[in-house]
Write a structure and sequence with these properties.
single chain; about 220 residues; mainly beta; 5-stranded antiparallel sheet; about 10% helix
Length: about 220
C-alpha cells in the first residue's frame, strides 16, 4: 500500500518505508532503521539495496538522460517553413499510394521542360500551372516540383506557392507517414509535416499500443 510518501509492502505489514527519490520506473524507499530498498513500477515487493548500488544506478540513469538530451538537441529541430496542411487532422491514411492525383495535362517543350495544366472543375476548363523540369504526384494536399533552375519547391496540389517568398531546396520528396525529405545547403533533413519537427536522420515509425512515434536512434 502506498499513500503520500510512505509505502508498506505485503511481506512486511508492520514496517513503514519513506520515499527518498525516483529514477525513471524505480523508486527508492528507506525504513526507520535507515535500510534502503527500491521498487520497480507496478511491482509490489521491494528489492534491498545499499548506498553504493543505488548511486551506481542513479549515475547510469543520469548519463542515459543526458545522452538522450544531447542526441535530441543535436539532431532534432523545428522546421520553420510555413507548410500548411489544411486537412491534416482528417487523414487516416499515411501512405503516398493512398492519395489520388488530380486531373493533369502536360506538354513537353523543346528545352526538355514540361508545361502543366490542371482541370479546374469549378469553371470546367483547363488552367495553366506553369513550366517545370519535373512534377511529382500530390499527397497530403501538397506536391513537390522542380523548377527550370533545378531547385525543388513544395507547393499545394494545385501548384500554388505556400509562401510569398518561396523556400527552395537542393532536393525534396514527400514520403510515407507525412514526412518531407529534403536537402538544403548540402545538409539532409526529414520533416514531420503535422507538427514541423525536423530530424537530421531518417526516422522510423514505431507503434506502441494505439500511439505512433517517430524514432531516430534512441530519440
Amino acid at each position: 500500500m502506498q499513500f503520500r510518501t510512505f509505502y508498506i509492502q505485503p511481506s512486511e505489514p508492520s514496517k513503514l518505508y519513506a520515499f527518498k527519490e525516483k529514477l525513471d520506473d524505480l523508486t527508492l524507499w528507506e525504513d526507520e532503521e535507515g535500510n534502503r530498498a527500491y521498487r520497480k513500477e507496478y511491482e509490489s515487493l521491494l528489492t534491498q539495496t545499499d548506498k553504493d548500488e543505488w548511486l551506481a544506478k542513479k549515475n547510469a540513469w543520469t548519463e542515459d538522460v543526458e545522452k538522450f538530451r544531447r542526441e535530441a538537441n543535436g539532431n532534432v529541430m523545428y522546421f520553420n517553413a510555413k507548410i500548411d496542411m489544411k486537412y491534416s487532422y482528417g487523414y487516416t491514411d499515411r501512405l503516398l499510394a493512398d492519395f489520388e492525383e488530380i486531373e493533369l495535362r502536360t506538354e513537353q517543350r523543346t528545352d526538355g521542360n514540361v508545361l502543366v495544366y490542371y482541370r479546374d472543375n469549378d469553371f470546367g476548363r483547363w488552367k495553366s500551372a506553369g513550366v517545370y523540369a519535373k512534377v511529382f504526384r500530390q499527397a497530403y494536399d501538397l506536391r513537390v516540383v522542380q523548377n527550370v533552375k533545378g531547385k525543388y519547391l513544395v507547393r499545394t496540389k494545385m501548384f500554388e506557392p505556400l509562401e510569398s517568398k518561396e523556400q527552395e531546396y537542393d532536393f525534396a520528396e514527400l514520403l510515407d507517414n507525412v514526412i518531407l525529405h529534403f536537402v538544403r545547403n548540402d545538409k539532409e533533413y526529414w520533416a514531420y509535416l503535422e507538427n514541423n519537427i525536423c530530424f537530421a536522420k531518417k526516422p522510423e515509425l514505431v507503434t506502441i499500443g494505439f500511439l505512433n512515434f517517430l524514432k531516430m536512434d534512441d530519440v
